[in-house]
Amino acid sequence: MVEHSESAGCPFGERLLRAVLDRRTPAIVGLDPRANELPGVLRHELQNGSHLNTARLYQKFCCEVLDVVGPLVPAVKPQAAFFEELGPPGMAALQEVIRYARHLGLLVILDAKRGDIGSTAKAYARAYLVPDAPFAADALTVNPYLGPQTWQPFIEEGCAAGNGIFVLVKTSNPDSGVFQDACLRQGKAVYQLVAEAVQQSAERTRGPFRYGSVGAVVGATYPQQLAELRQAMPAAWILIPGYGAQGGTAQDVAAGFQEDGTGALVNAARHVLFAYQRSPYREKYGEMDWQRAVENAVRDMIEDLAAGTPARRLRSTP
Q: Which tens digit of pLDDT belongs to each residue from 178-217?
């Protein structure tokens, strides 16, 4: 297992901590562009709806989102699937969105859920996590189904360069329990065994710092497991999807934090990207001023998390 060395620079877990403390919020924005939900003022630019035109529109939309959320949040989470479905033009758009986000000083967590072993995993890591990678992000989501060796190459390539990974532990989808909650002969559920391995990797990659470069994904829709997993993985950041559009609330995510308000990131995508579609933003801004709807939805999310979780303590951080 590759441990953090001072020569490798500041590890991802510490960089993320500094970013959260700087913005004083754990809120992050998912970049999940969907053609049929974009504001009409943008959809008219689709013309014939070709992959090239759609990719260009996704890039424009995401960059305009970044312009308003950049000063407010520590990180963004692009969803690779929406770009990949457009082929090469979509991947070129993803590359530019990542570059623009990092240009604005945001950390980028690429949600691609890669998972493989050996040289194939190394190739994925070199595509996403090394400094000169084609899609150079700060962190990548990883599927652990092939076992702990799934993320070892990502640690060797990416974490050694100061970047990180988030391993799927307990996901927010309704049928996640079919596999993740299955009990093993040791009397533990699959997600509990994965969490133990994540904690071990987080410890080994944190060096002298508080959090390691290996984190976990745990959904807001399972608050009891979230509380359990926060205790089981004290050295790991927890990325929490499911807030907002999937039904997760500030109360649901509260147990994912350490007492000082750190240790968790709460992601919202549709909840803020398409805020212009729902009250009160629809009445205040509508489609023509969709960026202000995004900005205010993010501000409201930040306030909601500050009021309902230990993230309130970030406000008092010097």
A: 888 788 877 899 999 999 999 999 999 998 999 999 999 9
Burial of 318 (0-12, 13-18, 19+ CB in 10 A): exposed
Catalytic residue among 60, 113, 170, 284: 113
* Domains within the chain, CATH numbers bracketed: 6-312 (3.20.20.70)
Our answer to whether residue 77 is catalytic in this structure is no
242: left (phi over 0), alpha (psi -120 to 50) or beta: left
Residue 293 CB neighbours (<10 A): 26
- Does pTM top 0.85 for this prediction? yes
Phi, then psi, of 212 in degrees rounded to 5: -85, 180
Phi then psi for residue 73, to 5 deg, are -125, 160
pLDDT in tens, 244-290: 878 889 999 999 999 999 999 999 999 999 999 999 999 999 899 99
